[in-house]
Amino acid sequence: MILPTPLQDLAAQWISARRLYPIYFELAREFAIDIKPCADLEAGVESPGKDAVEQARQWLEQLDNQVQVHQLRQFLQTNALVTQDGLLQLVRHFLAKPEKSDTVRDKIDFLVVQYFSQIAPTGVNDSEVDLAYVAHAMEAVFGEVDLKAPVWLNALDRVLDSARKCRSLDELLHGGILEQGRKAKGLAGELFYLPVALVAFTRFGYLMRRVFFRLMLGDLNIILDGLTELEEKGVQTIDCRRAQFSAQEPILRLRMICQSWKVMFQAEYSSGSPLRMLVDLKASVEHALGRGKSAEAAAKPKSSTGQKPAAAGAKPAVTPKPAVAAAPKPALAANAAAASASQSNVPKAPVKSVTNPAMAAKPAGKAARGPAAPEFEISAEPGWDGDSGSPKK
């Protein structure tokens, strides 16, 4: 049976609206959404009439239609205003909608995982998080659930198994695994709202986050180890243009930024994480060390030019010392990384501009001004190749 849409009397609707209003008002302010305050909700009216309740409902509905999934995700993961109870109110609010579009489904999918992430113990093992465990924890949301799962939900476990076999973040992001999870959600249709299906998708999203974080932290450790190895070789700067940094990026600054990312990634989930920069930075460090796919490709001859193969012992192109006289002026090419560093109380170092203007990154703006980004997406460009740092042609 599909999870029923609860019918609320006027008093219950008003209580829900009053609890949601501070969250929605802050959402509108955060993303500069042009909407007038709801007078009765603003005034905190205790006993409103039917018209006031309807106006409040329309006010919330208007914002629901304007706030995109990625904006909701960013806001809830970076704003301390939203408590555990606030999350619960949001989940119930969207589940109560009589008509549920794909956007509403995606918001529900995010919210139930976010709520479970907050109430689940920090030290719980993946093996403990089965359907029964999630159903018990989410009983306040889903009620008592019959855990006899339909066969089609087995696809989620297959996706999880594939994700756990990934050895790097790049492999997870570009191996088609995330697309399989999104496809399973899309194919579910109205069956997504079966109580047992909601439990299964909550479990799936939570465990996928854990895989995601483990791989991110693993890649960060590889980068930090690589930077240490380069420093031991006397290298002070490397070419990081593919990661939206400069052609002579100081290793000291890269280490500082990576440490700030490492702290940030210890949170349950951090929207707006510079994932593409992380993947590209790892590739840049590996290239500087003479490793990775791009380094191997650079050593191969190009048939069209007739160039000779690179010598087996050729050293990677790195800059032992920064060229002080020709140092570029500070720029905002690495705006996102510098912001991450400041959030972790790490001193912000000057950011050097890239040598090639075509490869410079645009300053990061509010999410409201950019395209919607899926939860684990790192690039909106089709065919983006983490090894080359550019879209495939």
Spatial shape: globular
Low-confidence segments, given as residue ranges, are: 266-273, 302-393
Strand order of the largest sheet: 1-2
Structure summary, number of beta strands:
4
Query: How many DSSP H or I helices?
Result: 16
Terminal-residue CA separation: 47 Å
The radius of gyration is 24 Å
Residue share in helix: 40-55%
Q: Given the helix and strand composition, which structural class is it?
A: mainly alpha
Average pLDDT value? 77
Largest sheet: 2 strands, antiparallel
SSE order, one letter for each helix or strand: HHHHHHHHHHHHEEHHHHEE
Strand residue percentage = under 5%
Explain briefly what this protein structure is.
By secondary structure, this protein is mainly alpha-helical. 52% of the residues lie in helices and 2% in strands. The strands form two sheets. It has a two-stranded antiparallel ribbon with strand order 1-2. Strands 3-4 form a two-stranded antiparallel sheet.
